[in-house]
Amino acid sequence: MLLPRIRNQTTVCSKLFISLNQFINQNNPLLKNSYSSIYQRTLLLSRISTSYSISKCSHSFSTFQPACYSSSVPPSTKEQCEKATFEHSWLNKYLPSKLVPYVLLTRLDKPIGAWLLYLPCAWSITMASYHAHLPITKTIYMMMLFGTGAFIMRGAGCTINDLWDRNIDKMVERTRDRPLASGSVTPFQALTFLGLQLSAGLAILTQLNYYSILLGATSLSIVVVYPFMKRVTYWPQLYLGLAFNWGALLGWSAMIGSNDWSITLPLYGAGVCWTLVYDTIYAHQDKSFDSVIGVRSTALLFGNRTRQLLTFFSASMLSLLALSGQMNGQGWPFYLVSIFGTGMHLFWQLRTVNFDDAADCARKFRSNKWTGSLVLGGILADVALENLKSIL
Length: 392
What we know:
The chain is mainly alpha-helical.
C-alpha cells in the first residue's frame, strides 16, 4: 500500500513541476537554469518509483520478465525492455529454470562483452604469429583457448560486478532485473558460482607458459577493484580498459614466452582508448539515474563534450595501433583495414550516435564488435599474405 501511495504523490509533484517549469520558461527565463536540476530530479524520482512499483507486480508473474511500463517511459527504454523480455523468454524455454539465473548472471545471453574481451587477445596472438612466423595450428589453438577463457572470465567479471552493485542495480531500470538485484540468486550462491568460474578460468590459464600464468594472474586485482571505481572516480571506464585489454599483453607472451613491450604496450594502450570510447557510449544509457544515485562515469564527466573527447580517444587508439603495427613490421593490409577501416567505423559511430537515446547508445556499443573485428581482419590479411608469399 505504501509504494502506490508514494508513486501517486510523486506523480502529482512531477505534474506540478511540469506546469511550473512551463510558466518559468515563458515568463522568467533567468530562473530556468537554477530550477532545471530540481525539475529533472523530481521527474526521475517519479519514474523510479513508478518503475519499481510496477516491477514488483511483474516480478510475481515471472522472475526474469522486465517491467515494460507505459507512458512514463521513453520509446527507447520500451524497446530495450521488449528485447530483454524476448531474450529471457528464450532462455526460459530452452534451459532448466534453475540454470537461467546463472546464465543471466554471466550475461551469456549478451555475448558482446565476451567479444570485447576476446578481440584484444586475438590481435596480440595474430601479431605474434606474424612477427615470429609461427605455425597456423598454434595460432588457431591459442585463439580457441583464449576464446574459451574470455567467455569464462567475462562471466566471472559480471558476477563480481553484480555482487558489488546489487543494491545500486535495484535503483536503475536497465539493471534491476539482474539475478542478484531481483533476489533470484543470493550473494552466497553467487560467491559459490564465482568460485567455479574462477576455477575454470585457472584451468585455462595453466595451459600457458609460466611467464604468461604469472602475467595473467596479476590482472585479477584490476578485475576485482573495477566495480568499486564508479563510487570514487569519474573514470571507471579507464579501469575497465586496463582490465579488459590485458589480453593484448597476454596473447603475445602465450605465443612467444615473453613480451616485446615496444609492440605490446602501444597495442594495450590502443585497447584502453577503445574501451574509453565504447564504454562511455554505454554509460550514457544510465546517466540520468547515475547522477541521482551517486554512480560516476565518463558519460557524466564529459557531458556535452562527449563527442569531441571520444574523437580524441579514437584518434589516440588509431595512433597507438599504427605505432604497434610499425614496430611489428605489419604490411599494407594492416594499415588499409586495421587503421583506415577501423577509423571509418569509429567516425560513423561518433557522427551518428545519439547520446540521449538509450537504444541508440546500446546499438552503437554493440557495433564495436565490428570495430575490433576490423583490427583483427587487417592483421589476419597480413598473415595470409605472408603465407602466400612463402608458397609462391
